[in-house]
Amino acid sequence: MSSEFALKLEQVSKSYPCYTTRRELFRHLLFPFRFRNRLFPALQPLSLEIAHGERVGIMGVNGSGKSTLLELIAGTVSPSGGTIHASGRIAPLLELGSWINASDTGRENIYTAGYLRGFDRRRIEEQLPGIIDFAEIGEFIDQPVSTYSTGMVMRLAFASCIYLEAEILLLDEIFAVGDARFAQKCISFLRDRVREKTVLLASHDVNVITMLCTRAILLDHGRLVADGSPRMVTERYLELCYGEKQPLNISEAKAPSMVEDFRPGGEIHILPFPSDAGRRFGAGGAELTAVEFTTATGAALSAVRGGEAVRLRIEARALRELEQPAAGFVVRTPDGQYLFGDTAPAGGIERLSAGARFETEFCFVLPRLSNGVYSIGAAISTGALESHHIQVWNHDALTFQVNSGYPLQGALLGLPMKSITCREIK
């Protein structure tokens, strides 16, 4: 295999036999080459090339083949067809903790993890202090794992796998380890320490994919349906999630008292709502007719300032009778992460007849933002929030350019400051 690729898959597929009765199962076990059984294609023929240092997110609804793909690359499952070439040591974090022996101590299990990867004792001992510290096991490291809580076992498994270095990391929904604080610690570790590694990360979390990955792929019923930037693939994933439930079509009140930043903000220039409605999906029961920032009197604005109160107006028209229509929006960073958003409570309008129009206005403080091009996705849904149906979702209803130069020091957003003082204490 060419050394420029860390992984190369050529028409790789995996199918599992399906049995409707026990008789069929026993018949297949006794005469495997005599009787043919119905096959379930968990992964249809797939070709993929992943370069060294790429961080690839794998997305798809449940049952799409994400875990099967990672198991094939890890070698824990044999492909039904095709070939897989790997250039480098692979560290799979799939069935996290499946190799742990409950009767051994935490320390002994760390050695087991190292031996399974082909490391000698000296190499494992070099990494041992870092693993113990990261896992936060403390004095329990020399106690049998059977005495650990589930969170402790998961932390030990994650730390053992991530610290014992490998060129290729396979991660399958690994951020459900321990508590929320430890999950954030894992994300921070991966963001800082895997820059030079090849990573395949399967996750449903849009923000995790856009934050950690340089590329993403989307699987649907075992087929590769999208391969590109994390932002583009996460948009397709969102469409796919709702597309399984419904038809998929890609295609002045007084403002509340708010703190204004004492620093004069630079203007944020807004591109107008696209006349062709932009890239969208949904059941088709409504259409967006306007998405805009406005003044208190309702006049459209072509520029706003960060750190000050703004009004976002969403106008739509019903294409058929709608029950409990509601509007919502989400602001996305230049790389596609969901920054903030909100949805109007359902029930403000009980029923809307076909052809009728309605509007929703959100009044909020626009935070200080890092430089870049941001987008606002807008949507119209029907029904209660927990069981709503998307009628139309426009991924890029508005875009705006931020070039403020505020010193956010790597933060995604800043808060408006009433004042900032610095003085010597005597």
Gyration radius from CA atoms, angstroms: 26 Å
Q: How far apart are the termini?
A: 69 Å
Share of helix, binned: 10-25%
Mean pLDDT over all positions: 82
Shape: globular
Strand segment tally? 23
Can you identify the CATH superfamily of the domain at 267-402?
abc- transporter (atp binding component) like domain
Protein architecture, described:
With 426 residues, the chain is of the alpha+beta class. The protein has a domain of 136 residues: Coagulation Factor XIII, Chain A, domain 1 (Distorted Sandwich), CATH 2.70.50. It is 22% helix and 35% strand. It contains eight helices and 23 strands. Strands 10, 11, 13, 16, 17, 21 and 22 form a seven-stranded antiparallel β-sheet that branches. A six-stranded mixed β-sheet has the order 5-6-7-3-8-9, sandwiched between helices. β16 and β17 form a beta hairpin. The longest helix has 15 residues. The termini are far apart.
Highlighted features:
426 residues; alpha+beta; Coagulation Factor XIII, Chain A, domain 1; 22% helix; 23 strands; six-stranded mixed β-sheet
Q: Secondary-structure blueprint of this entry?
A:
Elements: E1 5-18, H1 22-30, E2 38-51, E3 55-59, H2 66-74, E4 81-86, E5 90-93, H3 106-116, H4 121-135, H5 150-163, E6 168-172, H6 180-193, E7 198-202, H7 206-212, E8 215-220, E9 223-228, H8 230-243, E10 267-271, E11 280-281, E12 286-294, E13 303-305, E14 309-318, E15 322-323, E16 325-332, E17 338-343, E18 351-352, E19 357-365, E20 368-369, E21 372-382, E22 389-402, E23 413-414
